[in-house]
Amino acid sequence: MQMLFQWDMSKQDFGKLEGKFWKSAKAADTTRAFAEKLFEGAAKDIAVLDALIVGHSDNWRFERMAAIDRAILRLSIHELRAGETPPKVVLNEAVDLAKKYSSEESGAFVNGILDGVRKTLIVK
């Protein structure tokens, strides 16, 4: 989520951003591998993810959404599409992230969009 947020703010090359991120962030090897897999997957499919967000965000212009909410939505939709994590877990984690890093209202906003996306995806 942090790398997607940083990319949204700076529009840096994904590879360079990832390298810079890990210079200051510490994580276990397994955590780092999982984070890189999610970031790289979401980064690769950013146009598709953004189209899904736009398609499920009635009365909200994409560019007016909080950048942290966009990062949470991109990451979560990528994870939903991958089908490796149960959808309920993805939604709960996304709502918790939105409440922690954005606002209390963002939790409901993120939940609504993700629930709409989840219903349109064939999730394993």
How many domains? The number is: 1
- What is the assigned CATH homologous superfamily? NusB-like
Strand content: under 5%
CATH fold category name: N-utilizing Substance Protein B Homolog, Chain A
Runs in which pLDDT lies below 50 for 5 or more consecutive residues are none
Instruction: State the share of residues found in helices, binned by percent.
Output: over 70%
- Computed over alpha carbons, the radius of gyration is 14 Å
Secondary structure tally, helices: 7
Structural class of the secondary elements?
mainly alpha
Query: Between the first and last Cα atoms, what is the distance in angstroms?
Result: 23 Å
How do the helices and strands follow one another from N- to C-terminus? Answer: HHHHHHH
Tell me, briefly, the overall form. globular
Number of strands: 0
User: What is the averaged pLDDT score?
Assistant: 88
State the name of the first-level CATH class. Answer: Mainly Alpha
Q: What is the makeup of the main sheet?
A: none
CATH architecture: Orthogonal Bundle
